[in-house]
Amino acid sequence: MSPDQINQFFSFLYEGTLGEITWWLRLIAGILTSAMLAAIAVITLKFRQLNTRSAMARSQRPSSLAPPSEDVARPWQEVVRKIESPNPSDWNLAVIQADAIFDSVTKDMGLPGVTLGERLKALDPSKLASLNDVWEAHKIRNRIVHESDIVLSQEEARYAVRLFEKGLRELAYLPA
């Protein structure tokens, strides 16, 4: 193509009625391109914020090599003391306290939900192999709380506490 032919082609596009239509098309294309670039910038910023928040949440969670958190280790000693008590009402309290400790751990992990049950549903089973065990222990706790006349045997209470302990050890909130 010669330069004259190229000039004739562009003159055809930018003059007359067709020129007016192409001007509007270029304006609309420019506006859409600007809007898309702005959307990409906003989405990129939001992803960076989410990544920063999740990295902060992961860094606040103790690693498997970290010593047990005093927020868990100290109350856990109280659970152990109560489960060894000769008093049957202490056994129920031990299960309730173990559930409360696990509840605070799920909050610390940043899991969504208002109740422990909701947070357990949000927990990825690949992150906690003992998730079903924790569910079973939580159901025992619910029986204690919702059935007013229930008193667990010491063996049943120990079983529930061991299930909570298993989950806490797996999450590295108690030493292995």
Describe, in plain words, how this protein is organized in 3D.
The protein is mainly α. The protein has two domains: 3-60; 70-170, no CATH class. Helices cover 75% and strands 0% of the residues. The chain has helices at 3-14, 16-60, 70-83, 88-108, 116-122, 131-146, 154-170. α3 packs antiparallel against α4 and α4 packs across α6. Mean pLDDT is 86; it is low at 61-68.
In which range does the helix fraction lie? over 70%
CA-based gyration radius = 31 Å
How would you state the average pLDDT, rounded? 86
Classification by helices and strands: mainly alpha
The number of E-state strands comes to 0
Query: Could you spell the SSE succession in H and E letters?
Result: HHHHHHH
The description of the largest β-sheet is: none
Work out the helix count: 7
Tally of individual domains: 2
Shape: rod-shaped
> How far apart lie the N and C ends?
78 Å
What is this structure's SSE topology?
Elements: H1 3-14, H2 16-60, H3 70-83, H4 88-108, H5 116-122, H6 131-146, H7 154-170
Helix pairs in contact: 1-2, 3-4, 4-6, 4-7, 6-7
Summarize the structure.
The chain is an all-alpha fold and 176 residues long.
